[in-house]
Design brief:
Oligomer: single chain
Shape: globular
Mean pLDDT: 93
Distance between the termini: 16 Å
Helix content: 25-40%
Low-confidence stretches: none
Strand content: 15-25%
Number of strands: 8
Strand order of the largest sheet: 3-2-1-4-5-8
Radius of gyration: 15 Å
Order of helices and strands: EHEHHEEHHEEEHEH
Length: about 180
Amino acid sequence: MDKPRLAWAITGSGHYIEECLDFLMTLNNVDLYLSQAGEEVLLMYGISLNDIRKKMPVYRDKTASAPPVGHFYKGYYHTFVMAPTTSNTIAKCVLGIADSLVTNLYSQAGKCRVPSIVYPCDIAPEMETTAPGGKVMVYPRKIDLEGTDKLRSFEYTTVVESVDELTITVKERLKSLT
């Protein structure tokens, strides 16, 4: 390893997933992590994993112990991004549950003081999101919004509310490392 990389995780949310992937594909030195639901969502949106693999390594949630999380202890990653992130994953992170590849990555990043940038799918009481057939309105539950708000208070965690804010925050983080 020449220098630390960016770890990026996709969960089962389709919330502006194509825009997130468009930005992700412009980056270098990235490893992509997929939850089982994240893999399913990519298929629903017609996104080819083979195309992504041409650009970066892809790790899938296929083992109980999630061995790749050990990369954080070796300084392999400088930043962890979860985008887009389901309310289920947010809830688990808020409660400290690390029972999947992605939640374990978030937990280990925090334990290693590696900054995380999180783009939750539930950020407002009424919002437009993307579905496989186009844009739809959703009305996140109070508990989902509370989870997003609580995550904002976690150390080493930045919560962003749009793809534009995600792009700016990741670019600023990368710039700060040079």
